[in-house]
Design goal:
12 strands, elongated, 1 helix, alpha+beta, 201 residues, single chain, 19% helix
Length: 201
């Protein structure tokens, strides 16, 4: 009854069937690997920061030629961007020093800093603007973006508002430097408008 199971024809069909199954499995494995690689590439493209290193309580400072601190930057979180020297920051506070005394405060919700060049870019977010204020309260500035270079040089942009004493000035851009509790060498560019408050009688 089962004589055909012992026939050469059946053995040939069985061998070909097994070979077909093996080839099919190999093809499926290769196809699955290709799909996984494509999905990984798509995820990498959609989320390029997936390999970034994140941590809490980031700090960085700049010192002068006498190793005195010019400024100290503190952030709630920091993320090293793709193994570079750039760090993405949130919850940023910067303190600017004159000698050993803090003279200026700068705050921003987000920003980046390069650990090698010490270039800092601070950005507004969720309705919170970047602010800078002298401790005596006589100098204040707010803007959408603040860029800081070495030796306390700054470049502000995005609806800049500056108050120094009785003078209030607005413009599209501003450059200058932080000096003590005030701003020096300030240049306001674009759509400038100034208000001088009258003194007390």
């Amino acid at each position: 009854m089962f004589y055909f199971l012992k026939s050469d024809w059946f053995k040939l069909v069985l061998a070909l069937s097994i070979l077909g199954v093996i080839v099919g499995l190999l093809y499926y494995a290769k196809w699955s690997a290709t799909i996984e690689e494509a999905e990984f590439a798509a995820q990498k493209l959609a989320n390029p920061t997936a390999s970034n290193v994140a941590f809490d309580k980031f700090e960085l400072k700049e010192v002068d030629e006498h190793y005195k601190t010019r400024w100290l930057l503190s952030a709630k979180t920091g993320t090293i961007i793709n193994n570079t020297k750039d760090v993405a920051l949130t919850g940023i506070t910067m303190k600017f020093f004159d000698g050993d005394k803090i003279k200026m405060h700068v705050t921003a919700p987000t920003g980046t800093v390069n650990q090698k060049s010490l270039y800092v870019q601070l950005n507004s977010a969720s309705g919170q603007r970047v602010t800078a204020s002298g401790l005596e309260g006589k100098s204040m500035m707010d803007m959408e973006k603040l860029e800081l270079e070495k030796k306390n040089q700054f470049r502000a942009s995005g609806g800049v508002n500056i108050a120094m004493g009785v003078a209030k000035v607005t413009g599209d851009h501003a450059t200058g430097r932080f000096a003590g509790t005030s701003f020096q060498d300030v240049k306001i560019i674009g759509n400038t408008h100034a208000i001088i408050a009258s003194g007390a009688p």
